[in-house]
Amino acid sequence: MKKLYGAAILGALILGGAFFSAPDAMAKGKMLDPANGADALEIMKRTQCGEADGVPAVYHWAGNVYSRIAGEPDRLLFKGEGMNIRQCVRVEDPVRGVGYRQVSREVMLYLDPKTGKVLRRWDNPFTGENVEVMQIANDPVNSRPSYPKNADGSDYSLPELRQQGDWLFMPVEVPLFYHNVLAGDYQDFVGNKYHAMEIFDFTMRASEILDPKSKTAYPSISWVRISDWMPWMKMRGRQGQMVFNAMGAKLKNFDELPSVLKDEIKLNYPEYTSPPPGDDPRPNETTWTVFKKMIDADRAKKKEAAGK
Question: Residue span of the signal peptide, if any (predicted)?
Fold first, then answer.
């Protein structure tokens, strides 16, 4: 997922399975207080992470992918099945306190909307061309460390948290607008920047996530993504966007994933059965960076073959 949510990087210190919990609430036996920086961080950690530092957590989502083009009805292009496997590790800062860093990798499969099978090739209805489908397989999708204190000295705070009865709702909206690795060096002047919006809406029980005795929580999630066409679709600058809409939840373990994901991971992405190491230093990947590497490698191979 993302990504899904933004994602990010930096070194971390793994403390063999140690569970970080908000000290104030634990000491006093009170429910976690979202207005307290350390408690707010613990709430976010329970939303994102496994039962203990270094213990994997798995998110699953499934839904639909549509086209949106001005002047024509939206079209259902694909079904989608995705997963993200992550772990959280303890990090310490002498000023900002004890926090965590999340490391992950994720897969999302494009499925035939009629058969539900994984698409290998796709008849593009807009261009008439048959193209090879590149599934989403981003490794890594890591996050910057989070601490009870922010870099400016303020307390860590949640993006938003709403309670209705025993239900807590936490929307996370991520507008993205940055350099597109597939475009040129003049994007500030002629456009073509990477432009997308990721929306993650978490729903969880207050009685679970706010209880200091809980090791983690198992929220449900909805994910909406609005973005440009995928590069493998070869749309050649056509006007329009893609809209992804999916729902899912954090699972107890990898085995709870549906067979279509487990079978494809076993076949083509065997490393996705576990998260990256906690001190993973690599830059994050996206469909755009992965596609660029694939195209560059293919061009280099063809150039070498032509020179022989």
Answer: 1-27
% of the chain at pLDDT higher than 70 = 90
Task: State mean pLDDT over 95-122.
Answer: 98
What does the pLDDT read at residue 5? 33
* Per-residue pLDDT tens over the stretch 22-44: 445 444 569 999 999 999 999 99
Q: Helical H runs in the chain?
A: 23-28, 37-48, 187-190, 206-209, 259-268, 287-307
Long-range Cβ contacts of 29-38 (<8 Å, 24+ apart): 29/212, 30/212, 31/210, 31/211, 31/212, 32/209, 32/210, 32/211, 32/212, 34/158, 34/161, 36/155, 37/148, 37/149, 37/155, 37/156, 37/157, 38/97, 38/148, 38/156
Q: Which residues pair with 106 in a beta bridge?
A: 84, 138
Q: What are phi and psi of 179, to 5 degrees?
A: -55, 130
**Mean pLDDT score of the chain, rounded to an integer?**
91
Rounded to 5 degrees, what angle do the CA atoms 17, 18, 22 make? Answer: 140
pTM exceeding the 0.85 threshold for the entire prediction: yes
- Closest to 113 in 3D by CA, of 152, 187, 62: 62
**Tens-place pLDDT, residues 221-236:** 999 999 999 999 999 9
* 3-state DSSP percent of the chain in helix, strand and coil, to 5: 20, 35, 45
The residues spanned by each domain of the chain are 23-307
Q: Cα dist. 36→23, 39, 40, 73, 155 in Å?
A: 11, 5, 6, 47, 7
Residue 307: band (very low, low, confident or very high) from pLDDT cuts 50, 70, 90 = confident
Is the predicted pLDDT of residue 62 greater than 50, yes or no?
yes
**Which residue's entry shows tokens 């001005």?**
70
